[in-house]
Every structure is written in C-alpha cells, then in structure tokens.
Automatic annotation (TrEMBL):
GO terms for cellular component: cytoplasm. Pfam families: Aldose_epim. This is Aldose 1-epimerase. One of its GO terms (molecular function) is aldose 1-epimerase activity. It comes from Vallitalea pronyensis.
Length: 349
C-alpha cells in the first residue's frame, strides 16, 4: 500500500493544488485533491479485472473551478439547502449567501468545496489514509463560530472507502457535512445509470417543493421512491408523480434511513459486475440522479456530461433541519465534537 502525490495545477487565486492517490495492494486506488477534498477517481476492477473509475471527475483544476457541479467534493458547513438563506438561533438571525434561487446551497459561495485543505498522509497497516483539515472562521459564509473540521479518507485492502468527519467550535453553530461523489459503476462514465440497480433501506422519504426545499415526510410505499427491494434507478422515472417533477424529472430527495449497523444502501451494475455497499451512521441520504445535468462538458476518461450519468448518495443529517418543523434541529456547542461516518465498499457480483 502506498500514497503518491502529484501537482494538479494552480487555482485562480494562485494556490497550489495537489492530488493524492491512495493505493491498496490489489491495484485499486482513490485520488483526492487538497482543493475541496475532491475525490477525482475511485479506481476498482470489474468482473473481468478491468480497473476503471466509478465516480465522475475532471482533468484540470480549471475545469473544477469553472464547470464542476460539486463533483466529488466535501460539502460544508451545511449540505443541501438552507431555505431563505437564513436561520434563527437563540434569538439571532444569521444571513447566508443566497446562491440557489434565494436559498443557501452546499455551504454558500465559498463552501468547503472551494478551499484548500491541509493534508496529512497516514499509513496504518491494512489501509492508507489522507487526513484533511480546515479552519472555517467565525462569520465565514455567515455562519457563527470558528469551526475546526477534519475529514479523513481511509482506503482499505478490501476496496472500501471510509470517510470520517469531525468538527469542533468555539461558539454554538450548525454543521452537517457530506461528500458529493457522483457514482457510476459502469466505469469511466461510459453509459448512464438508469439501468443500475439501487437499494435504499428507508421506509420514508422527504417531500420537496419546487425549489427542492423540504416539505414534509411521506411513506415510500406505492411510490417511485420505494427502493426497499432493489430496482433499476430509471424504473419509475416515467411515473406521473409530482415529486419527480419538482426535482427536474427524477430524484433529488432525502431518504430517512433505518437505524442499524448494516448496509443502508447498495448499487449494482450487472454489465460490469461492480457492486457497492454503503454504510453510514447518518440519519438520511440524499439521492440525486443528475436529472438535469448540463450536457456536453468533457470529463475524465473520455466521458461527457448528460442527464442521469451518475447518482449521488449524500449521507447527512436531515436537510434544512434548522428551519423545518418536521425535523429536530441539530446544534454543535463548544466542548462537543461533531462526528459522522460513511463507508462505500466495492466488490464484484
């Protein structure tokens, strides 16, 4: 097992970008940038031993800065949308950048996806890790408190990518982080994900309005949102359901995961044989199926963007919880530690 680092260009602000590649002993690897903590590649074999990337990525820092819809990045301080780009806490209203139809999306204009992280390489026997640290200063993007965050990517010899999130603050604040990798198990983005089989261990999902703001909770039974029995991502996309229309012709919804230590979600591509299990301690996963992805943007490995080219499985606490009566708000106080964990494990079936 080893870690290699190479230059990946310079940002518009003149910051050096480095790509770290974590290799296990079986020819699989994960590549990560210090810019945004972006996962550029997860290289794993198919049933014939061909090693390809199962996430969408880009070939240059210029492309990430100019064209990326959050490919592979760390999202924070808050994943998803904060309605009205503001929230109230202890009698104070905090105004945030309204970067998405009057709402705050994925941390704001300069979220965790657009900053340089301090990286530390770690070798720990049966795995290789990269620890990323960033201090989000009090008032950054409108959020209170100096938030000291750490994200550790750990890649194991059994082709599992673990993500550990930690955060501490010196003022009461809110934090809800995720990773925004776009998965496509076909490899190298060679076809869309509508035929790939998804399972979600969730009896309920979050309704959204036309701005993708939470609007309540509903049972998945009898809807296009029932993935308790594995089914193709595209199987029910032609259903005439209002919720699919709100999200631009597909899924962009939180699913309320059952509380256990087992597999919470899985994805399978029969043609390649690649299979992915997802484990997490988070209460929800936002499933985004690239419903209206801009067409024609060049990606790594010769792929070209188009709708439904990938699916995101964004594990997190309930979105916009601070503003939604259907969810309990979650705060981080001085002296406490925010922690979250997700694992994506790759295999062959």
């Amino acid at each position: 097992m080893e870690i290699k680092s190479t230059g990946f260009g310079v940002t518009k602000a003149g910051e050096e970008v480095t790509k770290y590649t974590l290799y296990n002993d079986h020819g699989a690897s994960v590549s990560i940038l210090n810019y945004g903590g972006i996962i550029t590649d997860i290289m794993v074999p198919d049933k014939n031993g061909h090693v390809e990337s199962v996430v969408l990525g880009m070939d240059s820092i210029e492309a990430y800065e100019e064209k990326s819809p959050y490919f592979g990045c760390i999202v924070g301080r808050i994943a998803g949308r904060i309605s009205g780009a503001s929230f109230d806490m202890d009698g104070t209203t905090y105004a945030l950048a309204a970067n998405n139809n009057g709402h705050a999306l994925h941390g704001g204009l300069q979220g965790f996806d657009k900053v340089i992280w301090q990286c530390t390489e770690i070798m720990d026997g049966d795995a290789v890790s990269l620890s990323l640290n960033y201090l989000s200063k009090d008032g950054e993007e409108g959020f209170p408190g100096n938030l000291d965050v750490q994200v550790t990517y750990r890649f194991t010899n059994d082709n599992a990518l673990e993500i550990f999130y930690k955060g501490t603050t010196d003022k009461k604040t809110i934090v809800n982080m995720t990773n925004h990798s776009y998965f496509n198990l076909a490899g190298n983005g060679k076809r869309d994900i509508l035929g790939q089989v998804l399972m979600l261990d969730a009896d309920k999902y979050g309704l959204v309005d036309s701005d993708i703001i939470p609007a309540g909770i509903a049972d998945v039974a009898g809807t296009a949102f029932d993935f308790r029995t594995p089914k193709k991502v595209g199987q029910d996309l032609t259903n005439d359901e209002e919720q699919l229309t709100y999200a631009g012709g597909g899924y962009d919804h939180p699913f309320m995961l059952k509380d256990h230590d087992g597999v919470k979600a899985s994805l399978y591509d029969a043609e390649s044989g690649r299979y992915m299990d997802m484990f997490t301690d988070q209460k929800s996963v936002v499933v985004y199926a690239c419903n209206q992805m801009e067409e024609g943007i060049p990606l790594s490995h010769g792929a070209i963007t188009k709708p439904h080219l990938a699916v995101c499985l964004e594990t997190q606490y309930y979105p916009d919880a601070i503003n939604q009566s259907c969810f309990e708000s979650q705060f981080l106080e001085p002296g406490e530690t925010y922690e979250a964990y997700t694992m994506y494990r790759f295999s062959i079936k």
